[in-house]
Amino acid sequence: MERVRAALGGLAVVIALFGGMILLRTLSRFLRALVWFAETVALFAFAALFGYLAYRVLWGGSDDPRRH
């Protein structure tokens, strides 16, 4: 009975270590994808703002409705 209990304990340790490594790998890949997505959105927002500012400077217009 002690051998069976020891074997089950060893199997539980193997499963915990293997499952833990898979969980860590999955979490790190998820976080990497999340950071990549956030970086892409932030870069797009920066480019849109920069493009808008360039448009306003090159067009030379104003948002003031009294100037029309």
Automatic annotation (TrEMBL):
It comes from the Archaea. The keyword Membrane applies. The chain crosses the membrane at residues 6-27, 34-55. Keywords: Membrane, Transmembrane, Transmembrane helix. This is CbaC protein. It comes from Halorubrum tibetense.
